[in-house]
Write a structure and sequence with these properties.
Helix content: 40-55%
Strand content: 5-15%
Number of helices: 12
Number of domains: 3
Low-confidence stretches: none
Largest sheet: 5 strands, mixed
Structural class: alpha/beta
Order of helices and strands: HHHEHHEEHHEEHHHHH
Shape: elongated
Distance between the termini: 54 Å
Length: about 325
């Protein structure tokens, strides 16, 4: 990956060399030296002067803040919102879980707190094609209430449709089949263009729909960055689990376990989540069957040892 910020450490040296260049040649210009120094300083300062003309945008409210304010005012709590990175930040069950327990209870108790079932679309700086399986609108047609996209991400894919055909098809299908309800343009404030789409097929928030509305899951493909794909299933499964949809959560966790190239430390939360949901729903037999399945084809000695230890705990607890 090549990012412009990587050259920032060179800027102080560049400034010193530019000043040294002016100081070296100015005395040789005789009576023109003062003008040369002024022109040299102006040339060095030109980029900052140009940038200053754009700084007024930074004083405006960021488009992501505007999008959050709109969501907070118009979207019921418990709605499932799928967002791209660099989009609005709102309080979801995953974000709530990351807060310390004492603070978490205070946040929950606030009358103005609105919790959402937030699901993030993966984005990878290296091997960005790896996110293609998650850019499939059919995954979200039966479960998401809103999809929020950001030009900071979408512009990267749209510039190279041959490399990112799945991503571009996702945007085109979203524009064609979902309802665009709001858009916040950079002209309205600093930040990327944020576009919010509403699912025209769903009329009540996700949390009020039955557990059976599980929806399609991404196709299992080779994970080019082993350990990255499992994060999506872990987050999506946790959202279902946090709202009490244990059966659907278990299915999502177990589906994620099919990404067998995932490192053990990435598979472990998925296994724990699946077992947790099965036991909570009273499906002890299914939990043992899942352990049997993994024990027959472990991905590493560490996973085999961990599964055997879990089995002993389950059998002991069952007695």
């Amino acid at each position: 990956m090549k990012a412009e910020r990587y050259v920032l450490p060179l800027l102080p040296l560049a400034a010193l060399y530019a000043a040294a260049l002016v100081a070296h040649f100015a005395p040789r210009l005789g009576r023109w030296r003062h003008a040369a120094v002024a022109l040299g300083c102006l040339a060095c300062a030109a980029p900052s002067i140009v940038a200053l003309t754009h700084e007024d945008r930074r004083a405006r409210t960021d488009t992501r803040t505007l999008a959050f304010q709109w969501i907070d005012a118009n979207v019921p709590a418990g709605s499932m919102i799928v967002t791209e990175p660099y989009g609005p930040e709102f309080m979801g069950v995953i974000e709530l879980q990351a807060i310390e327990a004492e603070v978490r209870e205070v946040v929950r108790a606030r009358p103005d707190t609105k919790l959402y079932a937030g699901v993030g679309l993966p984005m990878y700086q290296v091997m960005p094609e790896n996110s293609a399986p998650f850019y499939d609108l059919s995954i979200y047609d039966d479960r998401a209430d809103l999809i929020v996209i950001s030009s900071s991400i979408g512009s990267r894919y749209r510039k190279d449709p041959q490399r990112y055909p799945q991503h571009v098809q996702f945007y085109e299908a979203l524009e064609r089949t979902w309802t665009k309800v709001q858009e916040f343009d950079p002209a309205q404030g600093s930040g990327p263009r944020i576009t919010i789409y509403r699912n025209p097929r769903l009329t009540v928030p996700w949390v009020e729909r039955p557990d059976s509305t599980e929806g399609k899951l991404p196709r299992i493909t080779r994970d080019m960055l082993p350990g990255s794909a499992s994060g999506f299933y872990e987050r999506l499964g946790f959202v279902y689990e946090a709202y009490g949809f244990a059966r659907a959560a278990s299915k999502i966790y177990r589906y994620g376990l099919q990404q067998r190239e995932q490192p053990f430390e990435m598979r472990q939360p998925l296994l724990n989540g699946a077992l947790r949901c099965q036991l909570r729903a009273g499906y002890g037999t299914e939990a043992l069957a899942l352990l049997d399945e993994i024990e027959r084809q472990p991905t590493s000695p560490a996973e085999l040892e961990y599964v055997q230890r879990l089995r002993q705990q389950l059998v002991k607890g069952g007695k």
